Amino acid sequence: MTVIGIGSIITAVFVFTPSLPEYIDLVDLEPAGAVTFLLLGLGSVVAGIRRSALLSGAAAVGFALATLVQLAQLATGVVLLGGDASSLSLFLAGAVGVTCLLWANRAADPDLDSRNG
Amino acid sequence: MSDGAVSTSVPIATGPSATVQLPSSTGAGLAVLRIALGVLWVQNAGWKVPPDFGRSGDRGLYFWASEAVEYPVVAPYSWFVETVFLPQLAIVGWAVLLAEVALGAFLVLGLATRAWAAVGIIQTTAIALSVLNAPDEWHWGYILMGVGHLVLLLSAAGRTWGIDGLLRPVWVRSPGRVARLMTVLS
Fold first, then answer.
1. Average pLDDT, stretch B77-91?
2. Candidates B35, B41, B100, B101, partner chain A, best to mutate (most A CBs within 10 A)
3. Does the beta-carbon distance from B105 to A93 stay under 8 Å?
4. What's the complex ipTM?
5. Scanning A14, A35, A62, B26, which has the fewest C-beta atoms within 10 Å of its C-beta?
């Protein structure tokens, strides 16, 4: 969870790279998308450190919503978070990754919910 | 060389069932390859832009797919691109976009890695059949892409630094069909 969170925070850095060569500017990101990656990444890091099922669930829902918003943006052309399919791919990775880790933690420790609320 | 002069701690393979101890860095190397190929798809998904995927400006996915017609590699594939792919680009383009979005996401995560490595080989083959004979193309780029995905497929590269490594023990213990399927795909 923490690793995915750190990855999400690092992704936000790509908001500063559009003027750099293509081999550095790997992900197309606008400020709104970068803030989303940053906030969801921070949430995932805290969820991982505190082993909180509630925070993990919130992060998973956040990434899933961002994925849907990005998909809607591509389908309609209405700019919401900015960016393109590269940021969609990483929002999807966050949603699937955090959900899988939440599920794995619950499978390993069924009492996780009752302890962490 | 006299008897006993050579001493080694590495088990030597003596038959098909013999195991060889690999360096611990092997898993890390495979994880780096998996993540790098995942990022390759993440970036390349970015220039598939709906709704017309570049048709209006003769660029993007439309331009590159058209190379299969202008510079054919295999005649049946050129026919397929000309008669099916390009006329239905608004639909097929979405399939390509979603496949590459998912390839990037799942390879970066290391989830169902073997399955997505197989998808990566198929997609690499389709790209190569489109552009291999186009001017200024470096054929080794596509060969290396294909080989990279083949290595991920054969080595189950999601089991190191990947979600496959975390979930596989759960899938192996579980009697469900989905778990059994995921055991194969990971």
1. 97
2. B101
3. yes
4. 0.93
5. B26
